[in-house]
Design brief:
This protein is globular. The strands form 4 sheets. The protein has a 4-stranded antiparallel beta sheet with strand order 7-6-9-10, with helices on one face. Strands 1-2 form a two-stranded antiparallel sheet. The protein has 7 helices and 10 strands. Helix 4 (about 70-95) runs antiparallel to helix 6, helix 5 (about 110-130) packs antiparallel against helix 6 (about 140-160) and helix 5 (about 110-130) runs antiparallel to helix 7 (about 180-185). The chain is an alpha+beta fold.
Length: about 300
């Protein structure tokens, strides 16, 4: 199985346009199994506390927003899943388990709730894809794989049934680094208990795109806080989808042309290295972008 994966990665790497770095040198490379499981628990706390917000919106609120009223009940089932996941991981970790943080989610109505849920589940699917490499205990591997499968189903349901978009992006999930994933999560975290033992991850400056973007557009991006760089240094915008990535130069005026071949979930990262999207090279991001497409592969970008 490992030989098959490596062969696939090498095929992707052979292209000068589509690439997946062969060596990430990420800051989370020395993660222990306990730290990996606690990262999963941090994610499940994050998800459950988001889905608790569902109960301020009733089925009629969903209907008034032009969404299926029954979707409120499905979201309630997802909320129950996330609580079960958190309790399961807490039982494994015992007194080593991290506690929930205080969160700041942006939803104010059912539509913004759906939009945020899309991001939350995209983070989850990528996180469990990445966590697999830190686990050696077969029971842990099975447990994480089982949770991953359910999270992927959540994401597919939100995109296909609620958003009426594409249920998947590519044949593979994007394996972002834990630092990149935690950077996205941190945008929704106000504070965490001082007793929590954090894994060795970095938090990068937030990368912001305009609220409505499409493949082929030239748009201006921003970092918050701005990441300093020498005037002579060229930065690069990476667009990661599954095991593939497109990299283009970031212009001096902070504009970038979004590749017109992108589809589905895309994570964009700004780096100072055209050959690497490792943590050491990351300047800002990731930003989460969605480019929906129809059953024939035609662009069908939606407002959320």
């Amino acid at each position: 199985m490992r030989a098959i994966f490596m062969s696939l990665a090498l095929v992707i790497l052979s292209s000068s346009v589509l690439s997946l770095p062969s060596e990430r040198r990420d800051s989370d490379s020395a993660l222990t199994e306990i730290q990996a499981l606690n990262f999963a628990l941090s994610l499940e706390h994050f998800q459950y506390h988001f889905y608790k917000r569902l109960y301020q919106y009733g089925p009629q609120d969903f209907s008034n927003a032009g969404l299926p009223p029954w979707s409120q009940g499905r979201y309630a089932q997802i909320s129950s899943h996330e609580l079960t996941h958190a309790q399961f991981l807490e039982n494994i970790l015992g007194d080593k388990a991290v506690q929930p943080c205080t969160y700041n989610f942006p939803d104010t109505d059912p539509r913004s709730f759906v939009k945020t849920s899309n991001i939350v589940e995209a983070i989850a699917s990528s996180t469990y894809t990445t966590l697999a490499k830190y686990l050696s205990d077969p029971d842990y591997v099975i447990s994480i794989s089982s949770i991953h499968s359910v999270e992927a189903k959540h994401s597919a349901w939100i995109n296909a049934d609620v958003r009426e978009g594409a249920a998947w992006s590519t044949a593979f999930e994007a394996p972002l680094s834990l630092s990149q994933l935690y950077t996205i999560m941190s945008g929704f975290i106000a504070s965490c208990p001082s007793s929590n033992s954090l894994p060795p991850v970095k938090t990068f400056p937030a990368l912001t795109f305009p609220s409505s973007v499409m493949p082929g557009q030239t748009v201006q991006v921003s970092f918050s806080p701005a990441a300093p760089k020498p005037d002579s240094q060229t930065l690069y915008a990476w667009f990661i989808s599954g095991f593939k990535a497109l990299v283009v130069p970031l212009n001096a005026d902070m504009t970038v042309t979004i590749p017109d071949t992108l589809q589905g979930f895309v994570f964009s990262v700004i780096t100072d290295n055209r050959e690497s999207v490792s943590d050491d090279a990351t300047v800002a991001g990731p930003a989460f972008l969605v480019f929906d497409y129809d059953y024939q592969g035609n662009d069908q970008s939606l407002p959320m």
